[in-house]
Amino acid sequence: MLVSVTTLAIISFDRMLGVVRPFHQHLKKRQSIAIIVVIWIASALFAIPFALYRRYTVRVWEDMTERICMEVDSKMVVWWWVNVALLNWLPLTVMVISYSTIFVSFKRNTIKKNNREHPAMTHLKRRVVRMMFVVVMVFSVCWLPYQILTVSKGAFIDDSDHFHSERSKR
Q: Which of 18, 36, 125, 158, CA to CA, is 20 to 30 A from 106?
């Protein structure tokens, strides 16, 4: 998840530069490889606490056996908030700003008609941007429920890993 969202943010920023500044020098192969390596290393470092502070639990119910892996330390809730904020919502903000800038740029170029690019190239860029925007939106919509449940699980599950019941609240 961390690698995916960060990569999508970098791609959207690069697309924005490609559309807004078409004659600006783009990333070279070495720079791209360096960015990919940094993304993977940073994501691995941010994921280490999730690997260290988890326990495997088996619950046997009347009709099924449930196997879950969950955080041991209550401080992990704070770590989830950090990850959700810095490694999900910040890149998502970068993506929204990048694609908004691209859409504004396309509108402005359509109005000006001074675009030095061939119309077919502009059409191709629009299709790529639209596709990437859809990828970002689908990614966000798919991960949002999981993030909300993970971060807010303390409101629903007590320290003994059982759901809060209405009777215990009264």
A: 36
* Spatial CB neighbours of 9, under 8 Å, sequence gap ≥ 6: 90, 91, 92, 94, 95, 98
Nearest to 99 by CA among 132, 122, 77: 132
> Quick check: 104 pLDDT over 90?
no
Are 99 and 12 in contact by the 8 Å Cβ rule? The answer is: yes
- Statement: the pTM of the whole predicted model exceeds 0.70: no
CA distances from 69 to 36, 76, 97 (A): 29, 13, 36
Which residue from 3, 13, 8 is spatially nearest to 37, judged by alpha carbons? 3
Cα 128 from Cα 16, distance rounded (Å) = 11
Q: Which of 37, 50, 48, 45 is nearest to 7 (CA)?
A: 37
Confidence of residue 167 (pLDDT cuts 50, 70, 90): very low
| Amino acid 40: pLDDT | 94
Are 73 and 86 contacting, i.e. CB atoms less than 8 angstroms apart?
no
| Tens-digit pLDDT profile for residues 120-131 | 777 777 787 778
50-69 confidence digits (pLDDT tens): 888 887 888 888 888 888 87
